[in-house]
Amino acid sequence: MTKHTARIGVFGGSGFYSLMDSFEEIKIETPYGAPSDLIAIGTVGDRKVAFLPRHGKQHQYPPHMIPYRANVYAMKQLGVTQIIGPNCVGSLQPHIKPGHFVVCDQFVDRTSGRRDTFYDGPIATHISSAEPYCGVLRKLAVEIGREQGITMHDGGATVVVQGPRFSTRAESHWFTQMGWSIVNMTQYPECVLALEQEICYVNIALITDYDTGIVADGGVEAVSAAEVVNVLQSNNERVRYLILEMIKRMPDTRDCPCARALQFARME
């Protein structure tokens, strides 16, 4: 067991490899292997925070190879009860534009072969994922983002694809026609693994580009790789400020369903 503790955890996404100016990096081992990198432990206001870039600081783990179970379990070992999971995503709808933020309330899993549960037996455990994201933290994220002048989309479904390739036009058309909001490669199984550990989880999705299907429809212009990087770099500080303010204002007590996710999940 580590001597370090933290109440709030943050998983950094693409291009977002640090959060706090002053921190101590620690190494943690878990029953599921090592997490993606060293974990930075620091303080924001009066809150102890653990920060881990999910891809590693050198972006060495592609989405399908991220050690999701180790990452979440490392947070659990530190005592984390609330996790913020920012990520970069593509838009599936014309009104959700590059530079906007989406705080999702649903996901659609299109991945394959990922280790997506802590409960392989012998006790069958079936968490409800009807509401996979914490409603309390979602509301807080949207409120603070709007206070900071960010265009926030409250709710929406993210389609999680396996990666590392991007969608075909046919796949992207399908996702858009189904009414889903954004496409991403890392939200699953991260959010459900947190729920299995009874940890509150909220995503903050930064739109960097339009997905292939919308571009093919001719409604918007295709976004080049250089433009994606520009959107990412110009908005990462906005993501950081939003997260730092969220940390300061997170509730001290939890009365949301996340804290009781295992209460009726086991067949014993």
What does this structure look like?
The protein is α/β, with parallel strands linked by helices and 268 residues long. It contains six helices and eleven strands. The chain has one domain: Rossmann fold (3-Layer(aba) Sandwich). Helix content is 28%, strand content 23%. A hairpin with a 2-residue loop joins strand 3 and strand 4.
Would you kindly provide a brief summary of this structure?
Helices cover 28% and strands 23% of the residues.
Tags for this model:
single chain, alpha/beta, Rossmann fold, 11-stranded mixed β-sheet, 6 helices, 23% strand, globular
Major β-sheet annotation? 11 strands, mixed
Output the number of helix runs. 6
- Count of spatially separate domains: 1
Total number of beta strands: 11
Terminal Cα separation, in Å?
Answer: 29 Å
Q: What's the average pLDDT? A: 91
**Radius of gyration over C-alpha positions, nearest whole angstrom:** 18 Å
Write the layout of secondary structure elements.
Layout (H helix, E strand, L loop, with lengths): L7 E5 L10 E4 L12 E6 L2 E7 L14 H11 L3 E10 L9 E3 L2 E5 L24 H13 L4 E3 L2 E5 L7 H9 L4 E3 L2 H10 L3 E11 L1 H6 L7 H25 L19
Parallel strand pairs: 1-4, 1-5, 5-11, 6-8, 7-9, 9-10
Antiparallel strand pairs: 2-3, 3-4, 5-10, 6-11
Helix pairs in contact: 1-4, 2-6
